[in-house]
Amino acid sequence: MKVTLEKGSGVRGEMHLPGRKQLFCLLWTIILLSHWVHGQHCIWYGECGNSTKIPEKKLNCNYTGPPIPLPDQEGQDLLKDLCPGLVYGDNRVCCDTQQLKTLKNNIQIPLQFLGRCPACFFNFMTLFCELTCSPRQSDFINSTDFSAFNKSTTNVYSVTYYISLTFANAMYNACSDVQAPSTNVKALSTLCGREASQCTPTNWIQYMFDINNGQVPFAINPNFTDVPIGGMTPMNNETFNCTQSLDDGSGPCSCQDCSAACGPTPVVPPVPPPWTILGLDAMTVIMWCSYIAFLMIFLGAVLGAWCYRRRMVTSEYGPILDSNQSHSINSDGTDFVGDATCCETLGERFENCLRVLFSSWGSMCVRHPLTVILTSVVLVSICSAGLTYMRITTSPVELWSSPSSRARQEKDYFDQHFGPFFRTEQLIITTPVNASFIFSPTSGGPDIHFSSILNITLLHQVLDLQTEITNLTAEYKGETVTLKDICLSPLAPYNDNCTILSVLNYYQNSHEILDREIADEFLVYFDYHTHFMYCVSSPTALDDTSPMHEACMGTFGGPVFPWLALGGYEGTAYNNATALVITFPVNNYLNDTEKLGKALAWEKVFIDFVKNYDNPNLTISFSAERSIEDEIDRESNSDVTTIVISYVIMFVYISLALGHINSFRTVLVDSKISLGIAGILIVLSSVACSLGIFSYIGIPLTLIVIEVIPFLVLAVGVDNIFIIVQTYQRDERMPEEELHQQIGRILGEVAPSMFLSSFSETVAFFLGALSSMPAVRTFSLFAGLAVFIDFLLQISCFVSLLGLDIKRQEVAVFVGMLSFSIAVVNKVEIGLDQKLSMPDDSYMLDYFGNLSEYLHTGAPVYFVVEDGHDYKTIEGQNAVCGGVGCNNNSLVQQIYTASLLTNYTKISNVPSSWLDDYFDWVKPQSSCCRYYNYTGAFCNASVVDKTCVHCRHMTTTGKQRPNGTEFMHFLPWFLSDIPNIKCGKGGHAAYSTAVDLIENNTDVGATYFMSYHSILKTSSDFIDALKMARELTDNITQAIGPQNKTYSVFPYSVFYVFYEQYLTIIYDTAFNLGVSLVAIFVVSTVLLGFELWSAVLVSFTIAMILVNMFGVMWLWDISLNAVSLVNLVMCCGISVEFCSHIVRAFSVSTKSSRVDRAEEALAHMGSSVFSGITLTKFGGILILALSKSQIFQIFYFRMYLSIVLLGAAHGLIFLPVLLSYAGPSANKAKVMAARNRFVGTEREQLIY
Question: Which residues are listed as membrane-spanning (predicted)?
């Protein structure tokens, strides 16, 4: 029998074997030999010609012989490092040393991204090692095309690689979760040529082997099958899943890089169900029941009292009818002496002391008016002179965040160690043009819809706009300032291009690249569409793998992530974006006013330019860092006219209301214009004195102080003016009583009431200064002093002017309101919508609206590890890092876990980790960390120099993480390394500011790990984000375990200092209002003559007004924040005016019954309160509704109107009724003293 061995077997010849037995043995031997020979068959060996596709890369030489032992030690070492699975015997393989070097160079980028997960990288290297060097290549690789190299040798130009689908799936599964820390995305987004979520086992391998990807010099066509095809057996080597340890001792992948290693997915804590009763809001049900119960009890009590009085009480006229003797109510005053208690006697004596003191003072002021007025003017002038030292705080940080607050201290720490957060200039661009279109890829696949804003004509127009902005210049102190002078350039000084986060950076901000295309006369194969689709999938790519070979990385050397540059799309359908977002980050400066001034000057030019930019095809909303502060200043200036008109209206009313106008002809005589002017001047003088005194001390003013305090002091001051003037107008001068004695007596009667209200307000405001909120504290200090100075000027200067001027010429409803307000008090929204801080016509309103509508990510959040953590030890590294061997509860791992629950934690991305990237950068397998052998200086990976050697040796120790001094030796090199095509892990761009090196670069101080918040739209979103970030860092601090150490981990984002106040706003509100009420109660108790029950009623009524204010806030959509809290504190003060005068008049009344005393108090004081506060304020408040400022419309017009109406209703309706039912009994000592004072005068009251 003749047996011929085929060419493919590698053996040729023929044999003659006699006999069947021998033939069978021969066939068996041939089969075994065939398998052995076939397994040792190569398809290439060595490198020959250059690739026509990528000329700088080599093609392999065609070779069909057996594998060959590696000839040198270098090759054997490389084989051991790269492909340890092929190390066996004399290392017979199908590649030479040069091919191994090429393999090492080619896997540098994958190594840097996938090396974090040993199992993933092992499987990945298996795929390429089997392709490059396997001694049994011919089992699963078939050469399909060749090209000539020389006369005797050909190049392999195309192969088919048969890969087991099982292997492909296993490799993909092990790598699918691996993170790229510096970019906050998955590694496959960079290595798969598309978004990681769209990557599959097959298209990943197809992309890596695609001859058009810019990396592969010849065609490799993968064929995925689990069964042999055409005599080819698919490569199906052993794989490891990401939870397994490798044979070389490498541990399993971390949870961050392997979701299977994480255990159960964290579950969001259930939202506490609302408190309900019978399916209804519990507070509403409780308050309704309470109100109904009150009505039943109240009506029952009234009915019972009526029945009792009808049966038991005789006519009050009985004693009079039975006697002919005249009865003076004063005649039997001595009968009460034994009934007066010690406390009543003490109260009467204290009241009498105040009366005598103020009577004497008033008499003196009228007798010496010029002296008093001139002295007042001098003192006011001296105090007001402090206004020359006045500083106004407009900085939102200084206004709303206390220097001692946690957020402020953390901001200061961040600024000092890493520099202040950069300034942001941003455009959001949409189009009214309907120019959407369908793109049909020539490479196959479904049609792709592109939105109008991505039309190339509009992109050119946007690029023109962007270019004009980058070319803007400003003048600052005679210097020309350009964007390059102030912009953020992460690769400076090597690359001074400004960071511009714009989709046009995918085209290198070039019209030529945007227009570039590869086409023939029939079809367009590659153009801006294909480049866009590639870049949004792989924004870190340096080559789009098309024949154009354009980069996606921006001109500034960093990636432009689509979720930062596009808006208005769903999921990852970036092609459907309806908005372009262009962001110009600008450097911020902590203590360099010169550089900050340049930035402010350029921003002003930027704002003016965009305001005046006109393109009918583009709709632009924009913001600069200075925009909010500018608009607040403009808003304040624009409201000056509104405020002036408001005060003019109140002045006119005061002048007319203080007089008794008999006819139009005598209006100038009858009206009290001079007193009206004096009253306004006294208010302004008291405010000026307060501002001046605190300016002397160095306490800065705020806009709230300037806008609110005059209103407050006018409310208090006008009320007191009306009380003095109207009491005088109702009074009749006694016989032989001179004017100064009459006014002194009147002042003795009313000044204690004025002193009660003013001193209560002053103490309440000064105690309000205990608040930690700067705006509330500053307001309280200025308001307390202004109110007290106003009182002093009224009882001195105004009394003197009054003397000169004279010489010239029902309950159930309220309980229902209270019940309703209590039911909704917990429903008042917390926070301040930033749109409300802008004027109605502000360009920022459009920007804020588009910000919420189009943006897909929130503000960056930095997780800061304070100075003190030891990164040089394995334990310290494991507590922070997120790679192999790191703790399951490490800092990076906890942030990663939080990012899985975005809706709950408000963390949207895994953190960028300088530590993990540093470990990848310093690996000996990587070409990143090298140094010049002779000088010891750092050698960048892009440098080709034989004297550059690896930082660490390929030994067991060298492959481990660096620690101790070695850790610090290479870290500065990492932080200064510029990323490039050979080493994408260089840390200069991403981490140059993230690590604070201390002690001459021998230790690590403070560091941060950056992530992003999810998109935050409402105040509650911002508050929840801050709260959850702090909870997260508290857990991290505890997990790191800094026992007996002072450092901790804290989160920092630019908005924290503004929203921290809302974490404690409920406590601050309760504290400030509670302290104010306590102060009012204590002062009222003392100044009402130690009548405890009267003070209780005053405090209770004011508390009702405050609770009802919360009901109004809920009904009128007024949120609780620092502005509304200031107004609530002011509400306390104004409410004292509505209540204290009525209660004191009730207290000193000598009438016999509560009803009569309440009537007398209302008759004598009610008109002054009504005309002095209610009507005076009403006209001025209505003008505030016309303000352009939304803050004025909502927090001043609405709240002031509510304060006045609620105060008037409670003070003039509810309180008299309450006093008639539950008022304190008459102070017998006061009644006796009053009767004795009027014995024998015309005022002695007789009852017959």
Answer: 285-308, 370-390, 640-661, 673-697, 703-725, 746-767, 779-804, 1070-1090, 1097-1116, 1122-1140, 1161-1187, 1199-1222
